[in-house]
Amino acid sequence: MNTLKGEHIDLRALEPEDLEFVLEVENNEDTWHLSNTQTPFSRFVIKQYLENAHKDIFEVKQLRLVICDKTKKSLGLIDLFDFDFKNKRAGVGIIIKDTRDREKGFGNEALQLLLKYSFTHLGLHQLYCNISENNTASIKLFTKLGFQKIGLKTDWNFNNGKFENEYLLQLIHQ
Q: What is the DSSP letter of 16?
């Protein structure tokens, strides 16, 4: 898989040229709480990660794709993680880097492309995600595409000096 094409965006594999973009996304302290990151990543670590990004999802149990607009501008990242072939499930994460590019439908289209790929090409039965209770934009995005809230993890994450609840959402492919 090189590129998944949508109407307004494409999903493509990571390239070595994505170093600066991935470094900016991963080292943005404003979004660390989304992935439970505590420390910045070095250029060296991200470079090594990109050098291994070509490995198969069946080997490394994850897949990260770049969300690009039709001018090839990188907008964000979308991930499959905890890929479990035996049980046919994986976790999903998504981030649009620039706040000015959010709520324009890019995340929705990217998630639709990833869902289709996951169910059609990877043969997954279900996808899940973990979303902070106060992240209403992400909850809206995932529930709009059929994910259901199946649980609330109370005081699950400690951010900015207080505990926050986190929803577990699940989409089972019919």
A: G
Identify the CA nearest to 148 among candidates 115, 167, 170: 170
Give me 123's structure tokens: 């043969």
Asked if residues 166 and 153 have their Cβ atoms less than 8 Å apart, the reply is yes
Looking at the DSSP assignment, which residues form a beta bridge with residue 78?
Answer: 65, 94
State which residues form the domain around 115.
3-172
Does the predicted TM-score (pTM) go above 0.70? Answer: yes
Query: What is the number of structural domains in the chain?
Result: 1
Q: How many residues does the chain have?
A: 174
Q: How many CA atoms lie within 13 A of 57 on its CB side?
A: 23
CATH number for the domain including 73?
3.40.630.30
**Which single residue is written with the structure tokens 């169910």?**
119
Q: Give the pLDDT confidence of 84-114 residue by residue, as tens digits.
A: 999 999 999 999 999 999 999 999 999 999 9
